[in-house]
Amino acid sequence: MSKQEVIICHDLDENLNKAIAQCPHDKLFVLVDEHTRELCIPVLSGSDCIKDAHFICIGAEDVHKNLETLAYVWKELGDKGASRHSLLINLGGGMVTDLGGFAASTFKRGIQYINIPTTLLAMVDASVGGKTGINFNGLKNEIGVFSPAESVLIDADFLKSLDLRNLLSGYAEMLKHGLISTHEHWAELLRFDFNNIDYKALQTLVGKSVQIKENIVEQDPFEKGIRKALNLGHTVGHAFESLALETHHPVLHGYAVAWGIVCELYFSHLKTGFPKDKLRQTILFIKEHYGVMPFDCKQYERLYEFMKHDKKNSAGIINFTLLAEIGNIQINQSASKDEIFEMLDFYRESMGC
């Protein structure tokens, strides 16, 4: 898999012009959702490089990350004359970059695309690393391909349009990156003040977070080994997310990951000796900032069924990414059904569910 260029922007117009110039094309398309059409297109409206672009708008939020929306994007590309030499710019959050990347990677067997993530979650996770896809059959990211963008342009100015909930959603992935990297980075993430947001400091943290992910992806682009480190919190987190969707109470991805981190750090403490004080500090941060997803023991079976569909599993065994210490990653750690139910008990007790 080719390496994508990730650019921390100081002049978005200049960076975008350069990125487009590096991708010769016959037609240019820009994919947005209903939110980014209103909030983010005006930021690019003065850019000559997109003045002749064809815009495609899809519904916002994860409920639209599905086969029907994907087919609509394919149809719009076809109806507006896209060829295999066209270029697609995905301007939006993780749903837009995931779905748009998948649409580009499959239309006419693949066209080039550029990601401009506009949410914190997309900047540090969805838009970087080459994973694309859609939700299918009630399961998160069930269908997709590895296919990196030509460029990813990260401009922290977009973050000023986000509410606190969406900032925190992205920050959960940054917390995960801190846990799998160094004690110092984990500690500085816990110290960040969301009551008085310093966007310059946040951009610095974003740069560190992206670098951590890029280093891991470069070592293991197709998730055969160490890239599974990036799944910390996700085996349980995706199950929480799927249950929330099924019960018509959808939650933001990062919130589900944060709650999943609580569960998987508990397993890390039990199975690989993760320190109790760091477990307690991380849970306290998550409880304070993310609240809790309520569920009862009658829903354990359903959560277990969702975990059985996780892509890290093999031969029916549910696999987790755990930590022996911050930065000491233990992949392919399994757990029995009884242990998983005990973990869910711990979550409810520690979070006051």
From TrEMBL:
Main location: cytoplasm
Catalytic activity from the UniProt record: 7-phospho-2-dehydro-3-deoxy-D-arabino-heptonate = 3-dehydroquinate + phosphate
Record key words, sorted: Amino-acid biosynthesis, Aromatic amino acid biosynthesis, Cobalt, Cytoplasm, Lyase, Metal-binding, NAD, Nucleotide-binding, Zinc
Natural source organism: Phocaeicola sartorii
Entry GO CC: cytoplasm
NCBIfam families: aroB (TIGR01357)
Role: Catalyzes the conversion of 3-deoxy-D-arabino-heptulosonate 7-phosphate (DAHP) to dehydroquinate (DHQ).
GO BP term, example: aromatic amino acid family biosynthetic process
EC number, as in UniProt: 4.2.3.4
Cited Gene3D superfamilies: 3.40.50.1970, Dehydroquinate synthase-like - alpha domain (1.20.1090.10)
Domain 3-dehydroquinate synthase N-terminal as annotated: residue spans: 58-167
Organism taxonomic ancestry: Bacteria, Pseudomonadati, Bacteroidota, Bacteroidia, Bacteroidales
Name of the protein described by the UniProt record: 3-dehydroquinate synthase
InterPro entries the UniProt entry points to: Dehydroquinate_synthase, DHQ_synth_AroB, DHQ_synth_fam, DHQS/DOIS_N, DHQS_C
Involved pathway(s): Metabolic intermediate biosynthesis; chorismate biosynthesis; chorismate from D-erythrose 4-phosphate and phosphoenolpyruvate: step 2/7
Pfam family name, one: DHQS_C
Similarity remark: Belongs to the sugar phosphate cyclases superfamily. Dehydroquinate synthase family.
Keyword Metal-binding attached: yes
GO terms for MF: 3-dehydroquinate synthase activity; metal ion binding; nucleotide binding
Needed cofactors: Co(2+); NAD(+)
Stored PANTHER family: 3-DEHYDROQUINATE SYNTHASE (PTHR43622), 3-DEHYDROQUINATE SYNTHASE, CHLOROPLASTIC (PTHR43622:SF7)
SUPFAM superfamilies cross-referenced by the UniProt entry: Dehydroquinate synthase-like
All copies of domain 3-dehydroquinate synthase C-terminal, residue ranges: 170-313
